[in-house]
Amino acid sequence: MLRLQGPLPERYTTATAEQLAEWIGSAKAALGRRVLILGHHYQRDEVMAWADARGDSFGLSRIAAARSEAEFIVFCGVHFMAESADILTAPHQQVLLPDLNAGCSMADMADIDEVEEAWDQLGRVIDVDRLVPITYMNSSAALKAFVGDHGGAVCTSSNARAVLSWALRPAGAGGAGGDKVLFFPDQHLGRNTGYDLGYTSDDMAVWDPRLERGGLDEATVKAVTLLLWKGHCSVHQRFSPEHVRAFRQEHPEGIVLVHPECAHEVVELADHVGSTDAIIRAVNAAPPGSVIGIATEIHLVKRLADEHPDKQISCLDPLVCPCSTMFRIDAPHLAWVLEGLVAGEVRNRITVDDRTAAAARVALERMLAIT
Ligand code: 13P
Ligand code: SF4
């Protein structure tokens, strides 16, 4: 998806770290409780230092919705998170994303046209009234709205199991009564959750949106329970079973924590699998002296290592891969949007149109009711 962020004025690009910190601090103080700065766990330290709340993608949206006195939510994360915050907050609250180019490459792997086309193609083979669409939080508002309109729900990395169980549970038992799920955009979260629920590889197939009928024959579409969209996170897909084996060889007593966006071959070798919040909780719960290898974005891993000097914490991938879109949010962009607010100018507002927001809210609220 094309998003256009113009270059910042020179005042911000040439400023020192100290100047930027001073400007951010002054603007934040001037705005007081009118502004709420939210920081996703993958943000850089120079940004996180100013966050009023830290969290995973859904947790931050809930915080935004709960803090209704905040007129401005400065969302230090990526585009889909800011959209979700706009959907869940009250009309008087405005959500700002400091850099419009902070998207999510995974979310961009499924767009509404492709999903509608897939739905049409599936409708020629199976009864789509029994097909439940589930979208990961990491998706555009348009996809969340599609799911809301077609009886499905959103899920996050922490509640995918509960949401998939709901989708396939009979309507009489409080479920959606589906006999199949179309899960997008992350095939890995879908597959890992499917295995976790006891499904096998025979019950799942990957839907490739670039191929006719997803690249599947009719018999396969009819036979499988989980149709997994061919999308992935380029950060988490880098982790391999070799990384886990090398860590275990060096630290036989070590603890391996991985995010469920990693491939199943990595997940099955881990001690704990969970969202960014769950990874943080597992690190907190580990006894002093623990050696912990983590498969997730490097800024979170480094922060955990700094905050737990009594534990030896490292990233399982020695080559280290940051999320390049999260990384776009930096102190100059944060200073620019905050100083804009002080001057009465709302920069980089993220809005979701009313119709899309209403349908997407249905899908988000179904998730909340399930979990
Ligand atoms: P969490 O919901 O676990 O914070 O994950 C968001 C994300 O983008 C992971 O790549
Ligand atoms: Fe998207 Fe992956 Fe970055 Fe998360 S880490 S925001 S899924 S690209």
Essential attributes:
371 residues; alpha/beta; Rossmann fold; 41% helix; globular; binds 1,3-dihydroxyacetonephosphate
Give an overview of the whole structure:
With 371 residues, the protein is α/β, with parallel strands linked by helices. The protein folds into 3 domains: 10-102 and 325-352, 3-Layer(aba) Sandwich (Rossmann fold), CATH 3.40.50; 107-233, NadA-like (Rossmann fold); 236-315, 3-Layer(aba) Sandwich (Rossmann fold), CATH 3.40.50.10800. It contains 16 helices and 14 strands. The chain has helices at residues 10-13, 17-31, 45-48, 57-66, 79-88, 112-123, 141-149, 160-168, 187-196, 218-223, 241-250, 264-267, 276-285, 298-307, 331-342, 354-370; strands at 35-40, 53-55, 72-76, 94-96, 131-136, 153-155, 180-184, 204-207, 226-229, 255-258, 272-273, 291-295, 312-315, 349-350. The strands form 3 sheets. The chain has a 5-stranded mixed sheet with strand order 2-1-3-4-14, with helices on both faces. A 5-stranded parallel sheet has the order 6-5-7-9-8, with helices on both faces. Helix 4 packs parallel to helix 5 and helix 7 packs across helix 16. The longest helix is centred in the last third of the chain and has 17 residues, at 354-370. The mean pLDDT is 96. 1,3-dihydroxyacetonephosphate is lined by residues 41, 56-57, 138, 156-157, 233, 261, 275-276.
